Hints:
alpha/beta, Elongation Factor Tu (Ef-tu), domain 3, Rossmann fold, Ubiquitin-like (UB roll), 3 domains, six-stranded antiparallel sheet, six-stranded parallel sheet, 20% helix, iron, metal ion binding
Amino acid sequence: MWAIIYIYSNMQKFHSLVIKEISKATPKAYSLVFYIPSEMRKSFVFKSGQYITIKHSIDDKEIRRCYSISSVPSKTDTFEIIVKCVQGGVFSQYVEQKLKIGDTLEIAEPEGNFYYEETAGSSKNFVAVAAGSGITPIFSIIQSILTHSNDNIVLFYGNKSVEQTIFHNEILELSENFGNRFKIIRFYTEENIDGHHFGRINQKVILDTLLKNHIDLSNIEKFYVCGPEDLISSTTSSFLSQNIKKENILHELFYSQQSPEQIINSSSIIAGETVVKLILDGDESMIKVNKNVLLLDSILDAGFDIPYSCQNAICSACLCMLTKGQVNMVKNEVLSEEEIRDGKIVVCQSYPVSDEIELNYDKI
């Protein structure tokens, strides 16, 4: 079997940025603040909720990680991300053990479809649901809503304990300063604190709280949900059951609970060899790959630099338009059914199926 892939390049643009500040956000998370030189500031204009991709070589191996920006767009000379320490995490261990102020990292320009955009007119209502480090894009959204609009927002925020709560003090201060426009409902799984909920974020509590505060679900502009897969699934289902339009529920997945082995075993992968024709920045190349290897892996192994980041269909860095042919997309956490019908795919979780395939990055 042969597959011909035409790739019209829309490359990720990386810039060298210096780390201005490093501090502990919690005992298990670090705040990194990057300085943006004046000549690069147009490249780092972003909307609250979007993310950046870091590219760095550790032990002679290139790694890429995507992190949501937690600061606000109005601060143009710096931006902040939070890196949570993960057991066995290559980059988070590097941050904890080696990274220092003044070091330089390669940063891609901001992207992502999970964001807040101020609109003209009367004040609007928003709801946010976050667990753990899922607060990072939502914290940027909350700050923008409260300081640059007349909109209102209710936050449901789950953590293990107060000590492990990212932005605990900052959110408390916002609540005190904008109490009439900002309400926060906290959940803790390892501490039972008066006035807060013990256990995981509960969908009944969410709906009851909104009802108690006389918030009409039909009048909520957007619902933002960010955290692990089970939180997103249960919360989205709960909102949909209340006749909320699917397009008004935005989610950002931070942890996938399905392993790569589970994904592959649950999918029908075609065996055999595939010849891939790449048209990249005007150059044409032919490579031979296996049909049971993901397209992104095959293209990268052949030495081609195409956009990607998480490699797990959680971010949207590797999105492209499938303009001809068929692929087997075995996992997807970012594309809607409508976007898939339009031809968008995540290359990092797609296997070639048809004999000829066209991937167009310029139409994204």
